[in-house]
């Protein structure tokens, strides 16, 4: 039995997306899912070796990167020196408005207690929201959700809840739990269908996300072995002498972090040029404060291809080149591209 970890596991008090991603990658009964409260707890469990692997959210197709995860990869306090990425999971994310309904007055549209969506949004074209109310919403004065959900449901919120108080909580499942305990019935949660069912809440609206294909990418973490490798389960390696191919670049991804000398003109450009020199496709770049000095940053780049166990290949050469021009750099793992699987 292999122990893996993720965010809160599905239960009568939860229902968020991280455990669903974990279960899709680590099917029971071969794996035991160990729930954690926060993303930081997942990193700590993997680093300590109390679990073999972990699953954390990394980015959403509508709302971008999960900054908490990036900050943990930055590891400014040195708590997670052995964490590597060894896989990824894509999960479609669909949001619901959960709460308690209030019967609309006779003759009034049950879709909004304010008669029309335009009255709420102040927009002449409020109908662009994909999600439509299934019940009267006029009594809702407070919304709870995880901060990532607001950006994913912006059209719906602008159309039907402009000016209504929004309260950030630790997860969308926690939002549903809070609303379930609110006897006033005047609050609602943006959360998952599972959370609504588990907490006995009504579905006031569904498909709130702006984009029909809204999805979140989760990364699978493991601990670096004592010999510095990530094999198996990360496919960071290849058999000695095995030729590198274009297909291999498409089938794998690699995450790297680095810092630059901010006082040196062109230092960042010089680091990025290393990847071009070795023919590597750079698919994303992010930055977070490095805490070295005010307005100094640590950069994260994701490239196609993998670091090979035998030291050969374009990624290995690029990492050596980056080490020569960056102030500091760190390989954070190589893994199979789930979109090509």
Automatic annotation (TrEMBL):
Domain of life of the organism encoding this protein: Eukaryota
Biological-process GO terms, alphabetical: L-phenylalanine biosynthetic process
Entry coiled-coil feature ranges: none
EC number of this enzyme: 4.2.1.51
Pathway: Amino-acid biosynthesis; L-phenylalanine biosynthesis; phenylpyruvate from prephenate: step 1/1
Alphabetized CDD domains for the sequence: ACT_CM-PDT, PBP2_PDT_like
Keyword Amino-acid biosynthesis: yes
A GO term from the CC aspect: cytoplasm
Catalytic activity annotation: prephenate + H(+) = 3-phenylpyruvate + CO2 + H2O
Domain (Prephenate dehydratase) ranges: 7-223
Primary enzyme class: lyase
Record keywords, A-Z: Amino-acid biosynthesis, Aromatic amino acid biosynthesis, Lyase, Phenylalanine biosynthesis
Annotated segments matching region Disordered: 103-134, 226-246
GO MF term set: prephenate dehydratase activity
InterPro entries in the record: ACT-like_dom_sf (IPR045865), ACT_dom (IPR002912), Chor_mutase/pphenate_deHydtase (IPR008242), Preph_deHydtase (IPR001086)
Domain ACT: 256-334
Protein known as: prephenate dehydratase
Record organism: Friedmanniomyces endolithicus
Organism lineage string: Eukaryota, Fungi, Dikarya, Ascomycota, Pezizomycotina
């Amino acid at each position: 039995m292999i122990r893996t970890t993720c965010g809160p596991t599905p239960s009568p008090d939860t229902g968020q997306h991280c455990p669903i991603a974990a279960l899709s990658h680590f099917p029971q009964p071969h794996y035991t899912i160990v729930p954690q409260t926060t993303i930081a707890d997942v990193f700590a469990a993997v680093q300590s070796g109390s679990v073999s692997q972990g699953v954390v959210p990394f980015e959403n197709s509508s709302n971008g990167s999960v900054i908490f995860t990036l900050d943990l990869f930055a590891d400014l306090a040195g708590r997670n020196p052995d964490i590597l990425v060894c896989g990824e999971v894509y999960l479609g994310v669909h949001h619901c408005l959960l709460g308690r309904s209030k019967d609309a007055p006779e003759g009034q549209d049950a879709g909004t207690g304010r008669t029309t969506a335009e009255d709420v949004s102040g927009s002449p074209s409020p109908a662009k929201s994909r999600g439509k109310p299934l019940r009267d919403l006029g009594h809702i004065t407070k919304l709870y959700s995880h901060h990532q959900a607001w950006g994913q449901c912006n059209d719906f919120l602008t159309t039907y809840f402009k000016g209504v108080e929004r309260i950030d909580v630790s997860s969308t499942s926690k939002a549903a739990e809070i609303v379930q305990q609110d006897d006033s019935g005047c609050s609602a949660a943006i959360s998952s269908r599972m959370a609504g069912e588990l907490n006995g809440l009504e579905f006031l609206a569904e498909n709130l996300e702006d984009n029909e294909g809204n999805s979140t990418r989760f990364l699978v973490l493991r601990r670096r072995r004592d010999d510095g490798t990530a094999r198996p389960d990360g496919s960071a390696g290849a058999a000695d002498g095995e030729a590198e191919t274009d297909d291999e670049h498409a089938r794998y991804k690699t995450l790297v972090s680095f810092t630059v000398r901010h006082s040196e003109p062109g230092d960042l450009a010089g680091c990025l040029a290393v990847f071009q020199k070795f023919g590597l496709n750079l698919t994303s770049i992010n930055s977070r404060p490095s805490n070295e000095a005010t307005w100094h940053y640590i950069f994260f780049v994701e490239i196609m291809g993998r670091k090979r166990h035998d030291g050969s290949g374009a990624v290995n050469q690029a990492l050596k080149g980056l080490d020569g021009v960056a102030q500091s750099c760190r390989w954070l793992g190589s893994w199979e591209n789930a979109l090509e699987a």
